[in-house]
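Exercise 7b. Backbone tokens:
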């Protein structure tokens, strides 16, 4: 599955784009404009996405990658 397919599936499941989820993560203090917030591990974001949006590990990791700057 391509990176874009993961992002498309996340949006279909949650109703939120990767940009939307990044903005929420920033609001929660898990991320900032440069990526993960200082001291925040990917696990914290994965746990949040699994809990609040019922995402699987791979789909949650695609959002972590997006937050870190991956775009393709």
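Sequence design result:
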């Amino acid at each position: 599955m391509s990176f874009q397919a993961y992002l498309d599936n996340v949006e279909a499941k949650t109703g939120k784009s990767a940009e939307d989820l990044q903005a929420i993560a920033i609001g929660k203090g898990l991320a900032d404009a440069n990526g993960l917030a200082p001291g925040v591990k990917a696990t914290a974001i994965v746990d949040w996405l699994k809990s609040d949006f019922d995402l699987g590990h791979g789909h949650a990791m695609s959002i972590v990658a997006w937050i870190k700057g991956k775009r393709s």
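Instructor comment: The first strand starts at residue 31 and ends at 32. The CA atoms of residues 26 and 32 lie 5 Å apart.
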